[in-house]
Amino acid sequence: MELRHLRYFVAVADELHFGRAAEQLFISQPPLTRQIQQLEQEMGVVLLTRTKRSVRLTEAGAAFLERARQILLLADEAVTVAQRIAAGQAGALGIGFVGSATYTLLPEILRSFRAQYPGIELLLHEMSSGEQIQALQDGRIDLGFVRPSTPQRSLAGEVILREPLMAALPDSHSLAASPEVSFDDLRGDPFILFPRLPRPSYADHILALCAQAGFTPTIIQETLEIQTALGLVAGNLGVAIVPASVSRLPWPGVVYKPLPPPAPTTEMAVAYRDGPLSPALANFLEIVHAVARELSATGSYTALSVS
Prior knowledge:
- This protein is an alpha/beta fold and 307 residues long.
- It folds into three domains: 3-86, Winged helix-like DNA-binding domain superfamily/Winged helix DNA-binding domain (Arc Repressor Mutant, subunit A); 91-160 and 266-303, D-Maltodextrin-Binding Protein, domain 2 (3-Layer(aba) Sandwich); 162-265, 3-Layer(aba) Sandwich (D-Maltodextrin-Binding Protein, domain 2), CATH 3.40.190.
- 40% of the residues lie in helices and 22% in strands.
- It is built from nine helices and twelve strands.
- The protein has helices spanning 3-15, 18-25, 29-43, 59-86, 106-116, 129-138, 202-212, 226-234, 279-297; strands at 48-50, 55-57, 91-97, 120-126, 143-146, 155-170, 190-193, 218-222, 240-243, 254-258, 265-273, 302-303.
- The strands form three sheets. Strands 3, 4, 5, 6, 9, 10, 11 and 12 form an eight-stranded mixed beta sheet that branches. The chain has a two-stranded antiparallel sheet with strand order 1-2. The protein has a two-stranded parallel ribbon with strand order 7-8.
- Helix 1 (3-15) packs across helix 4 (59-86) and helix 5 crosses helix 9.
C-alpha cells in the first residue's frame, strides 16, 4: 500500500464518482479504477460498492476513509516540517552564553532571530566559558558565546567582537573622580576576580594584564558571576576590571573608569561543533555577524571575523 492509493481512495470517496475523481487527480478513469481494485485486493476488504449509476462507501470503507485522511494529513505535515527544518525555519537551538554577553550583542541577536525565525525554539543556558565548551562537546548546546576564545579539538569558532576594559571602583575610592585609571594606579588595591572557575578564564586575562603592569594583585575574592563582583565592589571590598559593556549597567556604589589608551581589550567569541552547520545554526550565525557589524559601526566595539 502506498500513499497514492490512499489519495486515490479519498478522492473517489469524496466524489462518489470515478469520473469526477479521475479529473480531480488528473488521470484517466481506467487506471484509477484499477488502483482502487488493487487496494481492495491487498486489504481483502470491499471499500466501495459500485453500480452503473452510483458509488457508495461500505461500512469498512467509511472507517478506512477517516483514518486514510489522518494518514495523509500526517504525511503532508511531515513533509512541511522536514522542509522547514531544512530551510532553518523550524526546530530548536541550544545557546550558551556568559553573563557579560547580555550587556552587548546577545539581546539584539535574540530579538532579531526571534523576529525572523519564530519557528525556531531557542533554549538559553547561562554558563561559564569552560562549561559551554564541555556542553558543546557533550552535544547539550549548539553554540556558545564565550570569553575568552580558547581553541578546542572538535570545536570551531570565531572571535566576533572586541571591546575595551574598564575599572569598576567603589564610589568612595580615592580615584572615583579621576577621568581615567591605570593598572599601575590599582596596584595597591585588593582585586575581585570573576569567574572563579574553570581555568583558563577571563580572570587569567586580568592577571596577565596585572603582570604586564609589573605587579601581582592581592585577590580579596573570586566570584562566579560578574553581578556578584559588582556587588562586592559596591561594598568597598575591592576593585574589578570589567568589559566596557558592563558600564551600561548602573550599579549603586560603583563607578566605571576607562583605562588609558591603548586600553587593553577583551574578546567575545562564538564556539560551535566542527563540521557542517545545520540550517538553523547557519541562520543564527548570519544574525550574529550582522549584529556585530552594527555594534562596530557605533565606534564602541570592533567587529571581527564577520564578513
